[in-house]
Specification:
Domain HTH gntR-type: 3-71
CATH topology of the largest domain: Aspartate Aminotransferase, domain 2
InterPro entries: Aminotransferase_I/II_large (IPR004839), HTH_trans_reg/aminotransferase (IPR051446), PyrdxlP-dep_Trfase (IPR015424), PyrdxlP-dep_Trfase_major (IPR015421), Tscrpt_reg_HTH_GntR (IPR000524), WH-like_DNA-bd_sf (IPR036388), WH_DNA-bd_sf (IPR036390)
GO molecular function, one term: DNA-binding transcription factor activity
Protein name: GntR family transcriptional regulator
Number of strands: 17
Family: In the C-terminal section; belongs to the class-I pyridoxal-phosphate-dependent aminotransferase family.
C-alpha cells in the first residue's frame, strides 16, 4: 500500500538532512510555503514537520520557524559522552562522591568478609528483599516523613527499576500518565517502553499547574500522576503544603495513582510532608541511594500501598527477581551504622557550596535552581538553539544536557540543564566561567 503523502515527504526531507544535503542549522520553508511547494494541505505540511521533529531531525521555534538540528550527538535524551577535544567538565550527569568513599567501601567489604553470615550473600533473596532488610529501609524512611510497615517496602535495583516495576504493575499499554511538562528523562523512556500515553502538565515557577492537571483529569482517563515534589529535576522546586494538598485532592477526585519520586528529596533539609504521608492509600514513593551515596550502588526501594504490594512484587519478580545480596548488605549496613545519614549531610553542604559557585559564575544569566541542589536550569537567548549551543560547548570540552531530554510534550524550551555534582569542586568555577564565555559569544 502506498504510504500517505506526509510520510513520503518526511522521508525525503529526512534523507536530505541525514546526508547533509540540507545542512545543520538550515531554516526550512514555513508550513504554508511547504504546502504550496508540495501542493499539499497545510495540515499535511504540519504533520510532515511533526514527523521530522519526532525523528529528532528538526526543531520548531515559535516566531522564527523550523530549523535542522545539529546532529553532533550532544543533545537529546541519550547524548554522546565522547568529546572531540579533551574533557574540561562533565555537566551532563551528577555523580557526586565524597573524598573518603573509597575507604568507606574497603572498610565495609572487610566487615562483610568477616561476618558470620557471609555465605548468605551467595544465596538468592526473595523478590522485594528479606523482611529484616526491608525493616532497615522502613526505619530510614521515617526520617523522610514516611511511616510504613516493612511489608510495604520493596527493595529494587535502583530508583529507575522501582519506577519500572511500579508502572508495569499499576498501568497497562495505552493508559494515560500525567507528568510535568519538564521532568526526569527516565520517565519518558519507561513510558515509551511500556506504551503509556504521556500527558504533559504545564509548569509554573512554584510547581505543576494544578488547574491544568485538574482539567486533564476531568477530560481524560488519567491512570497515574508522576511527580517530583521535593527538589524537582530539572527545575528544583519544593512544593509547599498547599500545593501538595491540592495535588492529592486532584488525584483523589480522579481516583489516580500518585507516583512520587524522592530521588533528590534528601537535599531539602526541612521539606513539607511527602505526598505518601498525605495520601498513603494511593501513593507509591520511589527513591534510592544513587545521588545520596553513589551512582554505582544500584539500590532503591518502592513504598507501596497494601492493595498494590502483590502486583508490584510480581512485577519485580518478572523483572529481576531481587536485588543482589551483596548490594543489599552494603546498603543496609550503611543505613544502619549512620553512613547514609552522614553522607546526606555532606551532600547538602557540597550542593549548597556548588550552587553558590554557580550563582557567582552565572550572575545575570537566566538561572533557575534550588539553593542546595546539584542542578541548574539555564535559559538561553532567543537566537540560541540548545542543540547548537551544546555542540559548541562540546568543542570546548564541556558536556551539558539540552532541554529536549526533559520535555515530555512538544514544547522544547530554549534552555540547558547543568549538573554540578561531577566536576571537582576546585575546578567548577573555571568550568562555569568558560561555559558562560562560550555561550555569550555565540552570535545571532
Amino acid at each position: 500500500m502506498r504510504p500517505p503523502s506526509y510520510r513520503r515527504i518526511a522521508d525525503e526531507l529526512a534523507a536530505a538532512i541525514r546526508t547533509g544535503a540540507i545542512p545543520a542549522g538550515a531554516r526550512l520553508p514555513t508550513h504554508r510555503d511547504l504546502a504550496r511547494e508540495r501542493r499539499i494541505a497545510l495540515a499535511t505540511a504540519t504533520r510532515v514537520y511533526a514527523e521530522l521533529a519526532a525523528m529528532g531531525l528538526v526543531t520548531g521555534e515559535p516566531g522564527r520557524g523550523t530549523f535542522v538540528r545539529h546532529r553532533s550527538g550532544y543533545d537529546g535524551p541519550e547524548p554522546s559522552r565522547a568529546l572531540p577535544v579533551p574533557r574540561v567538565a562533565d555537566l551532563s550527569f551528577n555523580q557526586p562522591l565524597a573524598p573518603d568513599q573509597g575507604d568507606r567501601l574497603r572498610t565495609a567489604l572487610r566487615t562483610l568478609s568477616t561476618s558470620g553470615e557471609v555465605e548468605s550473600l551467595l544465596r538468592q533473596h526473595p523478590p522485594g528483599g528479606r523482611s529484616g532488610d526491608r525493616a532497615v529501609v522502613a526505619a530510614y524512611l521515617i526520617g523522610r516523613g514516611i511511616d510504613v510497615a516493612p511489608a510495604n517496602v520493596l527493595l529494587t535495583g535502583g530508583t529507575q527499576q522501582a519506577l519500572d516495576v511500579t508502572l508495569r504493575a499499576l498501568t497497562r499499554p495505552g493508559d494515560v500518565l500525567a507528568v510535568d511538562a519538564l521532568s526526569y528523562p527516565g520517565i519518558r523512556l519507561l513510558a515509551a517502553a511500556q506504551g503509556l500515553d504521556l500527558a504533559p502538565v504545564p509548569v509554573t515557577a512554584a510547581g505543576p499547574d494544578l488547574a491544568a492537571l485538574d482539567r486533564l483529569c476531568r477530560t481524560r482517563p488519567v491512570r497515574a500522576i508522576y511527580t517530583i515534589p521535593t527538589v524537582h529535576n530539572p527545575l528544583g522546586w519544593v512544593l509547599d503544603r498547599e500545593r501538595r494538598a491540592g495535588l492529592v485532592a486532584v488525584a483523589r477526585a480522579a481516583d489516580c495513582v500518585i507516583i512520587e519520586d524522592g530521588t533528590y528529596a534528601f537535599l531539602e533539609a526541612a521539606p513539607p510532608p511527602p505526598l505518601q504521608a498525605l495520601a498513603p492509600e494511593r501513593t507509591c514513593y520511589v527513591a534510592g541511594l544513587s545521588k545520596n551515596v553513589a551512582t554505582g550502588l544500584r539500590f532503591g526501594f518502592a513504598v507501596v500501598p497494601d492493595r498494590h504490594v502483590q502486583a508490584v512484587t510480581r512485577s519485580l519478580r518478572a523483572a529481576a527477581w531481587s536485588v543482589p545480596a551483596l548490594v543489599t548488605a552494603l546498603a543496609t549496613g550503611w543505613i544502619t551504622d549512620g553512613t547514609v545519614e552522614e553522607l546526606e549531610r555532606a551532600r547538602r553542604e557540597d550542593a549548597a557550596a556548588r550552587q553558590g559557585i554557580a550563582r557567582d559564575a552565572l550572575a545575570g544569566m537566566d538561572v533557575v535552581a534550588h539553593p542546595a541542589s546539584y542542578i541548574v536550569w539555564l535559559g538561553l537567548e532567543p537566537h540560541q538553539r540548545p542543540d547548537h549551543v551544546a555542540a559548541v560547548l562540546a568543542e570546548e570540552g564541556i558536556l551539558v544536557s539540552t532541554s529536549d531530554a526533559f520535555a515530555t510534550g512538544p514544547h522544547r524550551p530554549r534552555a540547558l540543564r547543568l549538573a554540578l555534582g561531577t566536576p571537582p569542586l576546585d575546578g567548577l568555577a573555571s568550568a562555569l566561567h568558560r561555559l558562560r564565555r562560550t555561550v555569550e559569544a555565540i552570535p545571532p
